[in-house]
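We close this part of the discussion by returning to an individual protein. Part of our work consisted of pairing the sequence of a single chain with a tokenised description of its backbone. What the numbers capture is local backbone geometry rather than side-chain detail. The amino acid sequence and the backbone structure tokens for this protein are reproduced below.
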Amino acid sequence: MKLAVISAGLGQPSSTRLLADRLAEAATRQADATVQVIELRELAVDIANNLVTGFAGARLRAAIDAVTEADGVIAVSPIFTASYSGLFKSFIDVIENTALVGKPVLIAATGGTARHSLALEHAMRPLFSYLRAVVVPTAVYAATADWGADGEDDPLGARIARAGEELAGLMLNRKPGGEVEEFVPFAQQLAALEQ
């Protein structure tokens, strides 16, 4: 199995990357998978060029392929102005909008304070739902104050473990190819009922 990890952190070192690594570790404890991390900060120029030219260079194409060919995805973004970063959204925009259909996705984010945690539910979850991905129930938000706890006093660690387990379960039980029912227009469904 393959697990693609999208990290949209801008700094180096990055708490976003740290969270992404911990989530990948939690998922691979439950399901044996090869992990490929995609650092978006290294692809920023490639992403911008793709948006204006419509052409993905070799590095960006490899990142897109890693995500679309994966059996599961972990997507982690810092939160800016109550939403995911522009770099994160731009990367998602260059992926074919049907490429994530049926694919298990774990969403996570980092930010300065806990009050931004709802960005996962009002921004990231709807984005991946629109793309018809299967978003795991547990989203993980890590505020600055969440880092550094250990053992039973580590609620972040507990959320990471639960989310990793949920992602692994979805990856292990996913049908090959992520088969999806054929779309039937509503008018056609109504016409079938009238017969």
User: Anything to note?
Assistant: Strands lie at 2-7, 34-39, 72-80, 83-84, 104-111, 134-135, 140-143.
